[in-house]
Amino acid sequence: MSTSSPKTLRVLIVDDHAVARRGISAYLEVLEDIEAIGQAVDGQDALEQLAELDTYGNLPDVVLLDLMMPRMDGMTAMQEIRRKHPGVKVVVLTSFGEMERMNTMMQLGASGYLLKDAGALDVAAAIRAAARDEVFIDTSMAKKFTLQMSAPSVGMSSLTERERAVLRLVATGKSNREIAKELFISERTARTHVSNMLGKLNLTSRTQAALMAVNAGLVAPTT
Q1: Taking the model in full, what pTM does it have?
Q2: Which of 138, 7, 3 is nearest to 60 (CA)?
Q3: What is the pLDDT along the chain (223 residues), one digit of tens a residue?
Q4: 105 Cβ neighbours under 8 A, 6+ residues apart
Q5: In CATH, what is the architecture of 9-145?
Q6: CA distances from 42 to 47, 60, 72, 78 (A)
Q7: Do 160 and 137 meet the contact criterion of CB atoms below 8 Å apart?
Q8: Sheet holding 62-65, edge to edge
Q9: Which helix or strand (DSSP H or E) is residue 10 part of?
């Protein structure tokens, strides 16, 4: 019985520094399951290339996106990519390690957040995770998030049993509608539970809630 070879993941590299683009591209060239299909010098260039690729049905699976670039920065480009090409995953690769910036990008739909000092293996892991509809966050950023959540056990202890159940479901990627169906409640009630849970934990996004659930041992981390 023959088995088909795994799909090669196609990546567009977006960075205004030629050295960074070439370095990432050179690393990806040695991987069997990932290939760089192009390089863009800023967000505007990326959108123009994506529009052309879309015309021929050759969109990349993942865009590696820098944040600080001329003409069009990464945040603006991210919003446009998600609006025009929702099937394309975006992994942020930046030198900025502020939690607020990371949270903003994740809320806009990023599938990963890496710092530029991340190892080559992490870059490849983030690309593969994005292709699997998973989230990959730089180890140092994940540690910052954990430290930021002061006394997480106190926050967890404030949750009702129903809110803890909602947190587990949020951590597994369930939507409000799916949570409602799972818990036999209305979607409006599910939305209220999610809002209350985030408020008690002092969180602003479902991604943050998922990370906290993993750190608290409520759900197993994705591999």
Answers
A1: 0.66
A2: 7
A3: 445 556 899 999 999 999 999 999 999 999 999 999 999 999 999 999 999 999 999 999 999 999 999 899 999 999 999 999 999 999 999 988 877 788 788 888 899 999 988 888 999 999 999 999 998 998 888 877 776 655 444 567 778 888 989 999 998 889 999 999 999 998 999 999 999 899 888 888 888 888 888 777 777 665 4
A4: 67, 74, 75, 78, 92, 113
A5: 3-Layer(aba) Sandwich (3.40)
A6: 9, 16, 6, 11
A7: no
A8: 34-40, 9-14, 62-65, 89-94, 112-115, 136-137
A9: strand 9-14
Q: Which CATH architecture has domain 150-215?
A: Orthogonal Bundle (1.10)
Q: What ranges do the domains of the chain cover?
A: 9-145, 150-215
CA distance between the termini of the chain = 28
Which amino acid is it at 152?
A: P
